[in-house]
Amino acid sequence: MLKTSIGCTYPLGNAVCEKGVNFAVYAPNAEQVILCLFDDQANTEIARMEMNKREGGLWTLFVESIGEGALYGYRVDGLYDPGEGFFFNKNKLLLDPYCKDFRGDFTWSERHYCHLPVGEFNSHDNAIDMPKSRVFTPKVYEGKKPDIAWHDSFIYECHVKGATQTLIGLSKEKQGTFLGICDSGFIEHLKSMGVTAIELLPVHAFISEQFLTTKGLQNYWGYNTLSFFVPHKAYCVNGNVTEFQKMVATLHEHNIEVIIDVVYNHTAESGIDGPMLSMKGLHNRGYYRMLHTPESVYINDTGCGNTINIDDPITLRLILDSLRYWVEYMGVDGFRFDLATILGRTNDGFHGQHAFFQAISQDPVLSQVKLIAEPWDVGPGGYQLGAFPPPWREWNDKYRDIVRRFWRGDSGTLPELAKRIHGSNDLFEHNLRGPLNSINFLTSHDGFSLADWVSYENKHNDANGEHNRDGHSENYSFNCGVEGETVDPEIINRRKRQQTNALVTLFMSKGVPMICAGTELNHTQKGNNNAYCQDNENSWLNWHNLDSPQILKASITSLMKIRSKLSVFKHPFYVHADDNRFAVLWYNSAGQIMSESDWHDELNKTLIYILADNEKRSAVLVILHADCDGAEIQLPESPFSTSWEVAYSSLDIDIEADQPLNSFRLTGQSAWVLLSHNEETANGSEKV
């Protein structure tokens, strides 16, 4: 028999020391907590030991003569009263919320359910269908982090599996894994475009919802978290979670940061009819936000069945501990918070000074990493774009939508388009933030790919098994004359040009640019704008497209090179009329400053602007012409020279270097980037 003692209350989870392992878990309303040990194969329960109730709702136990790799789980007994939000049931094996690794697979079965009357499934033991928590001591990350400034950042959002599942030259065992992401070929692909940060879709261990598995589908994106500490095991070769560290270290060696998409707004335990897997069986009324009259009902501000209760101090501690773990031990450089409004919501609504934001702001670790909010959820007052505190950045969907509408040819878009290009000062300047607080994007994992934006006017989500009812209905998309695939060369060329036009807008806008993986490869999802359950070729990148003349990699590379040389995109503040160094100027097609009537001419679909740095005597002139018809324009006078030189055009033409231009005819639906030749450096090669 194993020898035990009372144990320590810190840290939560498991901790290995010289004589054994300490276990600590929070379950304030439980009557009994049992530590269960399992054999090395995670199949047979070999010991049950009662834990010791301690002050503050903690339970502890120190077990001698066991160590690294020991497998365990918790069983918790107490009041069973669903109406009051209590589901204690010692027949259900629970995953430790603080475990850093586990072994075994999760399998759906009726044994996980706890909401049915006693005597039905509540009495069934679910251990056979549950992964077992594993005693694991991680090593502190020791790699050197790139620490890239926001003004130099270019984010590439991608899915671990989808990015490398078909990567040419990658061994089969590494396809779709963390080790695939740090493959030299993939890294070189990123670096060649100028990418500085990779933003990975959820890498926390997750499971697929039962309604998907019954249809033969899987949760591909991963927004259904099982553990806040364990890397998703399917992305590890042989389940080795240390491969995540290796991936991060390798990317860091190549000066690429790692941002991870985190889901702290809900868990895979869903609502009252969901499974009991971990937190629901330990402290259901604390970990989840609930209405208590007339009975305990889960608040569902996520649309996923439950909502994390960030107001509970233990829940807040869990999330902060998880965030610090991924920074200090796994080495990540930042986070993108899914449905981040929930993290600032109390019973009274969203607050920019919520305890969560304050805790991060004063934390010496978390205050120094990149923090990106998805500033909306489906709850009341859920849309909070621009309301997050410094130093948070936010996904700017208003930027996405207006750029799409402009290039679709919608009327009356110029005033808002100019605001978004200028960095959305109307959204961020009120609380002392600048243009670099806006994450500008055209597409993300959620919605049409950039190729589908110009190929489909309607969503085609039938493969999701929901009769095409899921996904957004308004995508501000257009098909260039044919819905879906075509062999018409004119339509194919137009689609490429329109994608390129949007990319010119993206890289010539103030803010932080982000593209979705596959943009550069002309990736299509066949019109599916909600491919969350499509773990197949529809979602995986097709690397054979590298040979296609329709890919946009060269365009992205060229635009990022131009952007990186211009100081106007590095300036952290908004430019106003009294700025002595920087200038933002808007012009009409006659080369004159835009008048009030020009701005409100709904038929005007041409935007011309100059971004200039008077100190460095450099300027960029951008022309965005969304009209289908061509137009004769007069270029505004160059501030530092007698003419402009074309640096980039969305037209598939050769541009003669050093060809001075003062006026020319615009081709319909085209975008141009021109640079002002700096006469002070005329004898050298530098032009900006």
UniProtKB/TrEMBL annotation:
It comes from the Bacteria. GO terms for molecular function: amylo-alpha-1,6-glucosidase activity. The keyword Ribosomal protein does not apply. InterPro entries: GH (IPR017853), GH13_cat_dom (IPR006047), GlgX_Isoamylase_N_E_set (IPR044505), Glyco_hydro_13_N (IPR004193), Glyco_hydro_b (IPR013780), Glycogen_debranch_GlgX (IPR011837), Ig-like_fold (IPR013783), Ig_E-set (IPR014756). It comes from Pseudoalteromonas luteoviolacea DSM 6061. Keywords: Glycosidase, Hydrolase. SMART domains: Aamy (SM00642). Gene3D superfamilies: Glycosidases, Golgi alpha-mannosidase II, Immunoglobulins. The lineage of its organism: Bacteria, Pseudomonadati, Pseudomonadota, Gammaproteobacteria, Alteromonadales. The keyword Hydrolase applies. Belongs to the glycosyl hydrolase 13 family. This is Glycosyl hydrolase family 13 catalytic domain-containing protein. One of its GO terms (biological process) is glycogen catabolic process. Residues 165-563 form the Glycosyl hydrolase family 13 catalytic domain. SUPFAM superfamilies: (Trans)glycosidases (SSF51445), E set domains (SSF81296), Glycosyl hydrolase domain (SSF51011).
